[in-house]
Inverse folding.
């Protein structure tokens, strides 16, 4: 049985682009703009965790952020233009529980799973109105390792995020599946790996904003689907380690003879 508690306090300062008032146009009707008056945010975080048999872990966490830097979407009705800037809200609170559960399904299949249940709450006055948004969400991640015949290993990864709130944005559920396979050659000196990321190209962010005079839908499609091929080779002679062990044994013999 292991229990652990932790506390951290940190300050996050605005990035250059968040402060730069220059307009960055995405298209003729959408752009981003920095806020020179943006202030740093201060976060206090607490966590209490318990681990059983050095495998199964449950953790409770809470964080409170003052002057929370939050993206605020605004709309100019006369020109039908929407733009995004960053402002300080009074607070952002996050609390939740996380479970980590590794499972040895069979001799050739090991599964590591984590489940996170959390609540996000944004609160404060922005330049376009009062913000009081909160939602309880959850996420799940599963990493599965396969040991196959002839020295072949494989991995399958799945993650899912439920609907969540991010400032004034409501982000729709997302999920993705990735995998890989590898094999050793030349007396385990050379490893060949093939990785597939976002196999079904589902890592797409859908979000909505229904706030004040804004009713908008956004879709962000990332370049997340790709295949990578890796080859690695270990150089050096195995006899070097043997020589070191022989040298250590000779030194011990000399010490015994000296006695």
């Amino acid at each position: 049985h292991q229990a652990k508690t932790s506390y951290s306090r940190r300050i996050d300062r605005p990035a250059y682009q968040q402060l730069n008032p220059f307009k960055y146009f995405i298209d003729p009707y959408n752009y981003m703009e920095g806020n020179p008056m943006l202030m740093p945010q201060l976060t206090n975080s607490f966590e209490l965790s318990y681990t059983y048999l050095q495998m199964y872990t449950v953790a409770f966490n809470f964080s409170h952020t003052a002057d929370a830097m939050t993206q605020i979407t605004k709309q100019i009705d006369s020109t039908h233009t929407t733009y995004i800037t960053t402002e300080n809200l009074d607070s952002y609170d996050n609390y939740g529980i996380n479970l980590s559960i590794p499972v040895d399904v069979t001799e050739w299949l090991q599964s590591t799973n984590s489940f996170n249940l959390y609540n996000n709450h944004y609160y404060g006055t922005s330049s376009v109105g009062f913000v009081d948004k909160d939602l309880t969400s959850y996420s799940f991640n599963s990493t599965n390792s396969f040991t196959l015949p002839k020295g072949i290993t494989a991995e399958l990864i799945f993650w899912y995020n439920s609907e969540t709130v991010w400032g004034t944005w409501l982000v729709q559920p997302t999920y993705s599946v990735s995998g890989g396979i590898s094999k050793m050659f030349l007396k385990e000196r050379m490893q060949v790996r093939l990785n597939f990321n976002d196999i079904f190209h589902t890592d797409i962010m859908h979000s909505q904003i229904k706030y004040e005079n804004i009713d908008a839908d956004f879709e962000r499609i990332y370049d997340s689907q790709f295949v990578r091929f890796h080859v690695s080779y270990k150089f050096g002679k195995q006899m070097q380690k043997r020589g070191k062990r022989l040298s250590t044994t000779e030194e011990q013999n000399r010490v015994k003879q000296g006695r």
Remarks:
- Confidence is low (pLDDT under 50) at residues 241-247.
